[in-house]
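Sample 3 of the quickstart, ligand adenosine-5'-diphosphate:
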Amino acid sequence: MLLDVKWAVRWLTMCAEAMAENRVWLIELDRPIGDSDHGENMDRGFQAVLEKLAETPPETPGAALKLTAMTLMSKVGGAAGPLYGTAFLRAATAFGDALEVDPAGLATALVAARDGIVARGKAESGDKTMVDAWTPAAEAAQAAAADATGNVLAVLVAAAEAAEAGAVATDPLVARKGRASYLGERSAGHRDPGAASSALILRAAVGAAA
Ligand code: ADP
Ligand code: MG
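Result:
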């Protein structure tokens, strides 16, 4: 199996469902170490992505992700909007005009997405940001794609599991980037909302391919 535009549209649709379902949870994660808007931002952004997908149905996975990038940049706002916008845009560029994406192409796009987030936000691993979900996800994807038996589903599962573990691992960290860093030591003991939403996005990618 390879990933095609139908997968991409299913993925983005499942992202929108996940953000709607987890809106309150993401708001609650953003309350103690932020400004309680992350769930609202993400839900609004992905609902707008659904509208755009219906308006101008994409013909390639890359086109679907590019449309998503543009929409998230203009609708999500806050810190997360430009960061996710950059991630989806870099992944779209990595996919190019391909009609289908193979395990290596998928891993390359996930690494490109992570690199985009780092380039934009300048956070390092351990700073308690979405990078702490994306870096292990990108690395796990590369390892799974390098495995000769690896297929796209295995790559997606590896990425989602690593992102979920990475998000949980932000709990004890002290934030060094973003709004949560204003709290210093008091940011420890809370999950980073952006790492949590990143794990939801990568889990949706699995659901769309399963
Ligand atoms: P805001 O902080 O502007 O209210 P959101 O609440 O939508 O924006 O998003 C907050 C999330 O953005 C954080 O949980 C974190 O994961 C991510 N974030 C913030 N700053 C950075 C950064 N410099 N690099 C990477 N991720 C960041
Ligand atoms: Mg916020």
